[in-house]
Amino acid sequence: KKLNKRQKKLKKEKRNSKILFKKEEKKNKQSNKNNDNENNNSDIPKKRKRIQTPNEKKIKKRVKRASKRLSKIIVSVEDIQNQLDELNKKKDIIEKTLSDINQEQKSSKDNQEKLNENQQQQQKEEEEEEEKKKKKALEDEKKRETLQKQKKLLIQK
């Protein structure tokens, strides 16, 4: 207990000495400032500081609080605007890629249709050629038959 009391006393003394030292420093600074001001501004009369009423103090505090709130709101609005801009950029990129994909699909459909038309045309041409060959073959057979008949007739004569 005795040690604790001694320690407490020492702590109090230290604290008090620190406080006294700080007070002295403040007084010295203030006196230095006053001396500087008197030396520098001896010609200029000092302005009296207007004493504020309690209502004015309250109003100032309210204004400070409101300005802090406003600044926070402004910052949040700017953040939201930045996010919106980024989202719009992403949306534009997505729309561009979608339009590219749609164009590719259209071109592939067109190409497929052209291929189908070409295949159909080739099939028609092949069928026509086959029909021509058949007709020619039929005509050739008719000619042979007529030639054979003529041969028979000639042989009979």
If you average the pLDDT, what whole number results? Answer: 87
The best one-word shape is rod-shaped
Helix-and-strand structural type: mainly alpha
What is the number of E strands? 0
Number of helices, where a helix is a run of at least 4 consecutive DSSP H or I residues: 2
Report low-confidence residues grouped into runs of 5 or more: none
What is the terminal-to-terminal distance? 165 Å
Provide the helix percentage: over 70%
Using the CA coordinates, give the radius of gyration. 55 Å
Largest sheet: none
Task: Work out the strand percent.
Answer: under 5%
Order of secondary-structure elements: HH
Describe, in plain words, how this protein is organized in 3D.
By secondary structure, the chain is an all-alpha fold. The protein is rod-shaped, with a radius of gyration of 55 Å.
Please give the structural blueprint:
Blueprint: H1 2-40, H2 54-156
Notable characteristics:
mainly alpha, single chain, 157 residues, 0% strand
A few lines on this structure:
This protein has 157 residues and is mostly helical. The chain has helices at 2-40, 54-156. It is built from two helices and no strands.
